[in-house]
Write a structure and sequence with these properties.
Layout (H helix, E strand, L loop, with lengths): L2 H14 L22 E6 L5 H8 L2 E7 L2 H13 L4 E5 L14 E7 L7 H6 L1 E12 L15 H5 L4 E8 L2 E7 L2
Parallel strand pairs: 1-2, 1-4, 2-3, 4-5
Antiparallel strand pairs: 5-7, 6-7
Length: 180
């Protein structure tokens, strides 16, 4: 990711402020799929940390990764305001997951960031029985584009896992899967 991209994300996060903790959108109404602590969670491309803080609030030792220092600041601020801990890691995911991210994790979340080169790493980071939650933009029900997944991309990429939820439509694709 270029410096311009990082600065663009910093500007965006500087204007939105902290959010409210909540599960990934595909888990709304399915929150029981996520274990309560003690367990470990990873939120990849965490943005302002609303999912990471939600996971930490459930008792999971949570690590959040993002390219934007402003996003990580918001994550830390939100976690602190609720009395939970989230470990933040600044990293350009275009270079892969940073060495500081060491699995296994019981929950791995990647929302609104698509880089198929990361798919194998996300799967490798899962502990036995671990839950993977991925949501990306999709060509299904929307226009194409370089940042959008083709139909069936997530299911094919994670075919080694037990797929619990596979939804595509309205320009989005969601997958929830468990490592056996």
């Amino acid at each position: 990711m270029s410096t311009q991209d990082r600065e663009r994300w910093d500007r965006r996060f500087a204007t939105v402020g902290p959010g409210l903790p909540g599960p990934p959108s595909v888990l709304v109404g399915r929150e029981e799929l996520v274990p309560d602590g003690p367990a470990r969670a990873l939120d990849v491309a965490c943005g302002r940390g609303t999912v990471a803080v939600w996971l930490a609030g459930r008792g999971l030792a949570t690590t959040a990764v993002d390219v934007s220092p402003e996003a990580l600041r918001l994550t830390t601020e939100l976690a602190s305001s609720l009395g939970v801990d989230v470990t933040t890691v600044g990293a350009d995911l275009d270079d892969g997951l940073p060495a500081a991210v060491v699995g296994p994790f019981d929950v791995v979340v990647c929302q609104r960031f698509r880089d198929p080169r990361l798919y194998p790493a996300l799967e490798r980071l899962l502990a036995p029985g671990g839950l993977l939650v991925v949501s990306v933009l999709s060509t299904v029900g929307d226009e194409g584009g370089s940042y959008r997944a083709a139909p069936g991309e997530l299911r094919a990429a994670f075919s080694h896992l037990e797929v619990l939820v596979d939804e595509e439509g309205h320009g989005e694709a969601h997958l929830v899967a468990r490592r056996n």
